[in-house]
Specification:
Blueprint (H helix, E strand, L loop, with lengths): L1 H19 L1 H4 L3 H10 L2 H13 L4 H17 L3 H21 L4 H14 L4 H22 L4 H13 L8 H14 L4 H13 L3 H14 L4 H8 L5
Helix pairs in contact: 3-4, 3-5, 4-5, 5-6, 5-7, 6-7, 7-8, 7-9, 8-9, 9-10, 9-11, 10-11, 11-12, 12-13
Length: 232
C-alpha cells in the first residue's frame, strides 16, 4: 500500500513540475504591451503579482514595473508612477549586476531612473538624473543599434531644458535615429509627434502620431495625443 502511494506521488510530482513554472511563463512581454496599450493598470498589477509568484527574473519584473509606471503617469497619477519606478529600479539594478554586458538591462534601468523624476522634477533630477543619463549611455555604448535606447534618451532630452543640455531639437534627433534603426518602432513615432507638437509643428506632429497608431492601433495614449494635436 505504501509502495503504491509513493509511486503515485512520484508520478503526480513529475506531472506537476511543468505547472510550477507556468505562472511566470504565462506573462509575456506581449501581455505587458497589450495591458500598457489599454492603459490597464489593474492588469499590470496582476501581471506583477503573477511574475513574483512564478519566480520571474529580475529583468521581467523590472520591465513590468516600468510599464506600470508609464501607465500611471499617463493616467496623471505621478505618485503611483514614482512608486512603481522605484520598485522597478532595484530589480533593474539586480539584473544589471547579474549581466553587466546586456545593453537592454542598462536601458531599462536608465528608463526607470528617468520615470521617477516627473513626480518631483527638481529633487528627482538631482537624485536620479545622473543614473538615467549614465545607464542610457552605457546601453548605447554596448549596442549602438538598440533603437529603444535612443527613444529613452530622446524622452530624457524632451523633458530636460536646453539650458541644461537637453531640449526638443536634441530629442527629435534621438527619435529620428531610433526610427532609422527600427522603422517599425511605434514608440519612436509617438514621441517624435509629441516633440514636434511642442515645437509648434502640428501638421508633422499629427503625421508622426498617426504613423505610431498605424503600427500600434490599440495604443490609447497615442489616440489621446492625436486628439490633443490640432489639425491644420
Amino acid at each position: 500500500m505504501l509502495k503504491r502511494f509513493a509511486t503515485c506521488w512520484r508520478r503526480s510530482f513529475w506531472f506537476l513540475i511543468p505547472l510550477l513554472g507556468m505562472t511566470a511563463a504565462a506573462v509575456t512581454t506581449q501581455d505587458l504591451n497589450k495591458a500598457r496599450d489599454r492603459q490597464d493598470l489593474a492588469a499590470l498589477d496582476g501581471s506583477i503579482a503573477q511574475l513574483k509568484q512564478g519566480g520571474a527574473s529580475s529583468y521581467q519584473l523590472a520591465l513590468a514595473y516600468s510599464y506600470a509606471a508609464e501607465v500611471a503617469m499617463e493616467l496623471h497619477d505621478k505618485r503611483k508612477s514614482e512608486s512603481y519606478a522605484e520598485s522597478g529600479m532595484d530589480l533593474a539594478k539586480k539584473a544589471v549586476a547579474e549581466k553587466e554586458s546586456d545593453a537592454e538591462y542598462h536601458r531599462l534601468l536608465g528608463n526607470l531612473c528617468g520615470q521617477v523624476i516627473p513626480a518631483n522634477p527638481l529633487l528627482g533630477a538631482l537624485k536620479y538624473g545622473q543614473c538615467a543619463r549614465d545607464e542610457i549611455n552605457k546601453a548605447i555604448h554596448l549596442d549602438g543599434k538598440l533603437a529603444l535606447a535612443y527613444v529613452s534618451q530622446g524622452v530624457g532630452n524632451y523633458y530636460l531644458p536646453s539650458s541644461m543640455g537637453g531640449g526638443v531639437d536634441l530629442a527629435l534627433k534621438d527619435f529620428d535615429h531610433a526610427i532609422s534603426l527600427n522603422p517599425q518602432l511605434a514608440e519612436a513615432y509617438l514621441w517624435k509627434g509629441i516633440a514636434l507638437r511642442k515645437a509648434n509643428r502640428e501638421t508633422e506632429a499629427r503625421q508622426a502620431i498617426q504613423k505610431a497608431l498605424q503600427l500600434d492601433p490599440e495604443r490609447q495614449w497615442a489616440k489621446q495625443q492625436l486628439e490633443k494635436t490640432p489639425a491644420k
